[in-house]
Design goal:
There is one protein chain. Helix content is 45%, strand content 17%. The radius of gyration is 17 Å and the shape is globular. With 294 residues, it is of the alpha/beta class. The chain has an 8-stranded parallel sheet. Helix 7 crosses helix 8, helix 10 packs parallel to helix 11 and helix 11 crosses helix 12. Bound molecules: zinc ion.
């Protein structure tokens, strides 16, 4: 099958998957329930999500392990199950993926280094434990995502590089400021991110979540001003969430997302998928737009 980065170097634009969290909620995950526990209690529902993205034409799918560190799982009394829940997450996606790739999802710990919540070493150990579980279950790569603090992102990258043999990718989440620039919650710009993550050893970098796919075009352009070589991955939300009739809704329709795909490829993105609110239908339309791109 080869490495994902090698496929990109051959000039291929690859398609990734869509939302997991919002999809699990549709399948009945309640607020306050632990999503990763479903890898053991509801494996068929998790498998269904994974399969639906493969069926939609994704070249790679993630795992249900975004909150899979000891810090997050500990809140549900599952701190001793880190390895097993992450291993199960990879095994489920591996079953669905066939000859496609599995990206082991790693989200932020929720601890803030700058506030002294946690030390570098504690963060490193937490990521190490998680990525070992993901590798044991058969992931091809580690997808560190939704990062807003550069230091946490760098610690996660080094834990993944030093404790697995997998490819390591990292994306951060940027919001558009009133002056029209993009910054993470901790004030990091896409430009700040580029060199820092690459020097730590990330083989693909990019952005996920945030403001929807249109803003991602600007973010890719900003990354490309700093670096023309590094593969760039984008997982955009289905627009900005709006609150409607007591529910959070992501308004961007699959056709609307797909319509931006040519611009985002032209800006320099190499892997395109979705984040919150995107569905298999979004991925199907993105696949179609990538196939038609000239
Ligand atoms: Zn998201």
């Amino acid at each position: 099958m080869g490495k994902i980065v090698d496929r990109i170097k051959q000039g291929k634009v690859l398609v990734s998957d869509g939302a997991w969290g919002t999809f699990l909620q549709q399948k009945g995950l309640k607020t306050g329930e632990c999503p990763e526990e479903w890898n053991i209690t509801h494996p068929e529902d998790v498998l269904d999500i994974a399969k639906s993205y493969i069926d939609a034409g994704a070249d790679m799918i993630e795992t249900n392990s975004f909150g899979g560190t000891r810090f997050k799982l500990g809140k549900f009394g599952l701190g001793e199950k880190v390895f097993n829940l992450n291993k199960a997450a990879s095994e489920i996606s591996r079953r669905a993926a066939g000859n496609k790739y599995v990206l082991g999802s790693v989200g932020p710990t929720g601890k803030i280094l700058m506030m002294g919540d946690v030390t570098d070493e504690e963060l490193y150990e937490a990521f190490k434990e998680q990525v070992r579980g993901l590798e044991a279950g058969g992931a091809d790569a580690i997808m560190i995502e939704t990062m807003s603090d550069l230091d946490e992102a760098r610690i996660a990258i080094s834990a993944a590089r030093e404790n697995t043999r997998l490819e390591v990718f990292c994306t951060m989440t940027f919001e558009r400021t009133v002056s029209g620039e993009y910054r993470s919650m901790m004030g990091v710009s896409p430009t700040d991110m580029v060199q820092s993550l690459i020097s730590e050893g990330a083989e693909i970098i990019g952005a996920n979540c945030g403001n929807g796919i249109t803003g991602m075009v600007d973010i890719v352009r900003e990354i490309r001003k700093t670096n023309t070589e590094i593969p760039v991955l984008i997982h955009a939300n289905a627009g900005m969430p709006v609150y409607r009739e007591g529910e959070t809704v992501f308004p961007e329709k699959p056709e609307e997302t797909a319509a931006i795909v040519p611009q985002i490829i032209a800006a320099g993105a190499n892997v395109i998928g979705g984040c919150c609110g995107t569905t298999p239908e979004h991925i199907y339309k993105i696949r179609d737009a990538v196939n038609k791109y000239r």
